[in-house]
Design brief:
Elements: H1 17-44, H2 48-60, E1 63-64, H3 65-72, H4 76-88, E2 92-96, E3 104-108, H5 110-133, H6 136-155
Antiparallel strand pairs: 1-3, 2-3
Helix pairs in contact: 2-5
Length: 156
């Protein structure tokens, strides 16, 4: 009797073919992430965390430092160190809020905006290549798979 439980299917058990394929896929994703890190360092001399900050500020505009910190889930001291580096690298600038001078806003500099534009164009180019090669249905399955993976990884 099949209950739909992966443990009842020898192909899906730990060590089974699907499990081995999953492990290999995770290792491949990790390799691609390392390549992404290398790309960001070579192309822009920034870290993935700095790219996340740039993308957030590009989409949200000037934002309160505490709000941005909360979005990423960093401790304030850790986030402050990251912003110190990004500010020293000319990526972001801290400004006092015109509404409340006690509040610090983070804003992208021209360099931060340029990095975001160039990075976005790189991503658009990759998306164009994939879009040209995939049919609609496999692309839809890919998106659903990425959403499920993202949901599960957030729970770890």
């Amino acid at each position: 009797m099949n209950t739909g439980n992966a443990m009842n299917d020898p192909h899906q058990e730990a060590g089974g073919p699907l499990y081995q394929h999953l492990e290999a896929s995770i290792a491949l994703l990790h390799r691609y992430y390392r390549q992404y890190q290398t790309f960001l360092r070579k192309q822009f001399d920034i870290s993935p965390a700095e790219m996340d900050l740039i993308a957030y500020l590009a989409r949200q505009g000037g934002s309160k430092m505490r709000v941005v910190c909360g979005h990423f889930g960093y401790k304030l001291s850790t986030f402050t160190s990251m912003v110190d580096r990004a500010e020293a690298d000319g990526i972001v600038v801290r400004v006092a809020s015109p509404m409340d001078r006690r509040v610090t806003l983070l804003m992208l500099t021209e360099r931060g905006n340029t990095i975001y534009r160039e990075y976005s164009e790189h991503i658009r180019g990759a998306a164009r290549l994939l879009h040209a090669q995939w049919e609609v249905q496999p692309m839809h399955h890919f998106f659903k798979g990425l959403e499920a993976l993202s949901d599960h990884l957030q729970q770890l």
